[in-house]
Design goal:
The structure is a single chain. By secondary structure, the protein is α/β, with parallel strands linked by helices. It has 7 helices and 5 strands; from the N terminus they run αβαβααβαβαβα. The protein has a 5-stranded parallel beta sheet with strand order 2-1-3-4-5, with helices on both faces. The longest helix is centred in the first third of the chain and has 39 residues.
Length: about 200
Protein backbone atom coordinates (compact mmCIF):
# COMPACT_ATOMS: atom_id res chain seq x y z
CA UNK A 1 0.00 0.00 0.00
CA UNK A 2 2.78 2.44 0.91
CA UNK A 3 4.64 1.75 -2.34
CA UNK A 4 1.46 2.36 -4.35
CA UNK A 5 0.95 5.68 -2.57
CA UNK A 6 4.53 6.69 -3.37
CA UNK A 7 4.08 5.70 -7.00
CA UNK A 8 0.90 7.78 -7.16
CA UNK A 9 2.84 10.86 -6.04
CA UNK A 10 5.21 10.37 -8.98
CA UNK A 11 2.32 9.87 -11.37
CA UNK A 12 0.41 12.92 -10.10
CA UNK A 13 3.52 15.09 -10.32
CA UNK A 14 4.30 13.93 -13.84
CA UNK A 15 0.70 14.41 -14.96
CA UNK A 16 0.56 18.00 -13.71
CA UNK A 17 3.93 18.84 -15.29
CA UNK A 18 2.71 17.42 -18.59
CA UNK A 19 -0.50 19.48 -18.38
CA UNK A 20 1.39 22.66 -17.50
CA UNK A 21 4.11 22.29 -20.16
CA UNK A 22 2.10 24.01 -22.91
CA UNK A 23 0.27 26.43 -20.60
CA UNK A 24 3.40 27.76 -18.88
CA UNK A 25 5.87 27.75 -21.79
CA UNK A 26 4.94 31.30 -22.86
CA UNK A 27 5.02 32.93 -19.40
CA UNK A 28 8.28 31.15 -18.55
CA UNK A 29 9.79 32.42 -21.82
CA UNK A 30 8.59 35.94 -20.94
CA UNK A 31 10.21 35.59 -17.51
CA UNK A 32 13.47 34.56 -19.17
CA UNK A 33 13.43 37.66 -21.38
CA UNK A 34 12.74 39.94 -18.40
CA UNK A 35 15.47 38.37 -16.28
CA UNK A 36 17.97 38.30 -19.16
CA UNK A 37 17.37 42.01 -19.86
CA UNK A 38 17.90 42.68 -16.16
CA UNK A 39 21.18 40.83 -15.68
CA UNK A 40 22.72 41.86 -19.01
CA UNK A 41 21.89 45.46 -18.12
CA UNK A 42 23.81 45.23 -14.85
CA UNK A 43 20.77 44.52 -12.69
CA UNK A 44 19.96 41.80 -10.21
CA UNK A 45 17.12 39.50 -9.24
CA UNK A 46 15.66 39.80 -5.73
CA UNK A 47 13.83 36.61 -4.77
CA UNK A 48 11.36 36.00 -1.94
CA UNK A 49 8.80 33.54 -0.62
CA UNK A 50 7.80 31.73 2.56
CA UNK A 51 8.50 28.16 3.66
CA UNK A 52 9.14 25.94 0.64
CA UNK A 53 8.96 29.04 -1.54
CA UNK A 54 11.75 30.59 0.55
CA UNK A 55 13.83 27.52 -0.23
CA UNK A 56 13.00 27.96 -3.93
CA UNK A 57 14.09 31.62 -3.77
CA UNK A 58 17.41 30.55 -2.25
CA UNK A 59 17.80 27.68 -4.72
CA UNK A 60 17.30 30.03 -7.67
CA UNK A 61 19.73 32.62 -6.28
CA UNK A 62 22.38 29.96 -5.69
CA UNK A 63 22.13 28.78 -9.29
CA UNK A 64 22.42 32.35 -10.59
CA UNK A 65 25.36 33.44 -8.45
CA UNK A 66 27.03 30.03 -8.71
CA UNK A 67 25.99 28.14 -11.80
CA UNK A 68 23.21 25.96 -13.16
CA UNK A 69 24.60 23.20 -15.41
CA UNK A 70 27.31 25.13 -17.26
CA UNK A 71 30.28 27.30 -16.41
CA UNK A 72 29.48 30.99 -16.92
CA UNK A 73 30.08 34.36 -15.30
CA UNK A 74 28.23 35.05 -12.07
CA UNK A 75 24.74 36.56 -12.38
CA UNK A 76 23.30 38.91 -9.76
CA UNK A 77 20.65 37.39 -7.51
CA UNK A 78 19.83 37.83 -3.81
CA UNK A 79 17.41 35.74 -1.78
CA UNK A 80 15.61 38.07 0.63
CA UNK A 81 14.84 35.11 2.89
CA UNK A 82 18.30 34.46 4.30
CA UNK A 83 19.38 37.31 6.58
CA UNK A 84 17.99 36.34 9.98
CA UNK A 85 18.94 39.68 11.54
CA UNK A 86 17.04 41.70 8.94
CA UNK A 87 14.06 39.34 9.01
CA UNK A 88 13.75 39.34 12.78
CA UNK A 89 14.45 43.05 13.21
CA UNK A 90 11.83 44.07 10.65
CA UNK A 91 9.29 41.54 11.92
CA UNK A 92 9.87 42.72 15.50
CA UNK A 93 10.03 46.48 14.88
CA UNK A 94 7.31 46.64 12.22
CA UNK A 95 5.49 43.44 11.26
CA UNK A 96 6.12 40.24 9.36
CA UNK A 97 4.33 41.56 6.28
CA UNK A 98 7.20 44.05 5.84
CA UNK A 99 10.14 41.63 5.90
CA UNK A 100 10.55 41.54 2.11
CA UNK A 101 9.19 44.95 1.08
CA UNK A 102 11.70 46.88 3.19
CA UNK A 103 14.53 44.90 1.61
CA UNK A 104 13.14 45.57 -1.86
CA UNK A 105 13.01 49.30 -1.13
CA UNK A 106 16.54 49.22 0.29
CA UNK A 107 18.17 47.10 -2.44
CA UNK A 108 15.97 47.35 -5.53
CA UNK A 109 16.76 49.63 -8.45
CA UNK A 110 14.94 50.39 -11.71
CA UNK A 111 15.67 47.54 -14.10
CA UNK A 112 15.98 44.93 -11.36
CA UNK A 113 13.57 41.99 -11.21
CA UNK A 114 11.61 40.73 -8.20
CA UNK A 115 11.02 36.98 -8.22
CA UNK A 116 7.94 36.69 -5.99
CA UNK A 117 6.91 33.14 -5.04
CA UNK A 118 3.64 32.24 -3.27
CA UNK A 119 1.85 28.95 -3.85
CA UNK A 120 -1.50 30.51 -2.89
CA UNK A 121 -0.80 33.89 -4.45
CA UNK A 122 -2.04 35.41 -1.18
CA UNK A 123 1.09 35.75 0.99
CA UNK A 124 0.84 39.25 2.46
CA UNK A 125 4.59 39.81 2.70
CA UNK A 126 5.11 38.72 -0.93
CA UNK A 127 2.28 41.01 -2.08
CA UNK A 128 3.89 43.89 -0.16
CA UNK A 129 7.19 43.11 -1.90
CA UNK A 130 5.44 43.32 -5.28
CA UNK A 131 4.09 46.75 -4.37
CA UNK A 132 7.56 47.88 -3.28
CA UNK A 133 9.07 46.56 -6.51
CA UNK A 134 6.62 48.62 -8.53
CA UNK A 135 7.61 51.69 -6.52
CA UNK A 136 11.22 50.97 -7.51
CA UNK A 137 10.27 50.54 -11.21
CA UNK A 138 11.17 46.86 -11.16
CA UNK A 139 9.62 44.11 -13.24
CA UNK A 140 8.00 41.32 -11.21
CA UNK A 141 8.04 37.64 -12.09
CA UNK A 142 5.34 36.07 -9.93
CA UNK A 143 5.05 32.33 -9.31
CA UNK A 144 1.77 31.19 -7.81
CA UNK A 145 -0.69 28.32 -7.84
CA UNK A 146 -4.39 27.56 -7.68
CA UNK A 147 -6.18 30.51 -9.34
CA UNK A 148 -3.32 32.97 -8.69
CA UNK A 149 -5.02 34.53 -5.67
CA UNK A 150 -4.39 38.20 -4.90
CA UNK A 151 -1.21 38.09 -6.96
CA UNK A 152 -3.46 38.30 -10.05
CA UNK A 153 -4.52 41.80 -9.02
CA UNK A 154 -1.11 42.88 -7.71
CA UNK A 155 0.77 42.21 -10.95
CA UNK A 156 0.85 44.71 -13.80
CA UNK A 157 0.68 44.08 -17.55
CA UNK A 158 4.46 44.58 -17.70
CA UNK A 159 4.99 41.79 -15.15
CA UNK A 160 5.00 38.03 -15.73
CA UNK A 161 2.73 35.54 -13.96
CA UNK A 162 3.58 31.83 -13.86
CA UNK A 163 0.48 30.27 -12.27
CA UNK A 164 0.31 26.51 -11.67
CA UNK A 165 -3.33 25.39 -11.86
CA UNK A 166 -3.41 22.94 -8.97
CA UNK A 167 -4.83 22.95 -5.44
CA UNK A 168 -2.03 20.82 -3.98
CA UNK A 169 0.84 22.80 -2.50
CA UNK A 170 3.39 20.02 -3.01
CA UNK A 171 2.52 19.69 -6.70
CA UNK A 172 2.62 23.48 -7.19
CA UNK A 173 6.08 23.64 -5.60
CA UNK A 174 7.31 20.80 -7.82
CA UNK A 175 6.27 22.71 -10.93
CA UNK A 176 7.72 25.95 -9.52
CA UNK A 177 11.18 24.42 -9.19
CA UNK A 178 10.92 23.01 -12.72
CA UNK A 179 9.94 26.47 -13.99
CA UNK A 180 12.92 28.01 -12.19
CA UNK A 181 15.23 25.40 -13.72
CA UNK A 182 13.77 26.23 -17.15
CA UNK A 183 14.58 29.90 -16.53
CA UNK A 184 18.15 29.10 -15.49
CA UNK A 185 18.67 26.86 -18.52
CA UNK A 186 17.19 29.36 -20.98
CA UNK A 187 19.25 32.25 -19.60
CA UNK A 188 22.38 30.13 -20.02
CA UNK A 189 21.41 29.21 -23.59
CA UNK A 190 20.77 32.83 -24.53
CA UNK A 191 24.02 33.98 -22.94
CA UNK A 192 26.28 31.13 -24.04
CA UNK A 193 24.59 29.41 -26.98
CA UNK A 194 23.22 25.91 -27.35
CA UNK A 195 25.00 22.83 -26.13
CA UNK A 196 24.08 19.19 -25.85
CA UNK A 197 21.68 18.42 -23.02
CA UNK A 198 23.56 16.83 -20.11
CA UNK A 199 22.85 13.14 -19.54
Amino acid sequence: MLEQRIQQHFIDSADLKYQMAEVLAAPIAAAVQAILACVTGGGKVLACGNGGSAADAQHFSAEFVGRFERERPELGAIALTTDSSILTAVANDYDFNSVFSRQVRALGQPGDVLLAISTSGNSANVLAAIEAAHEREMVVVGLSGRDGGKMNRALRDTDVHICVASDRTARIQEVHILALHCICDAVDVLLLGEQETPT
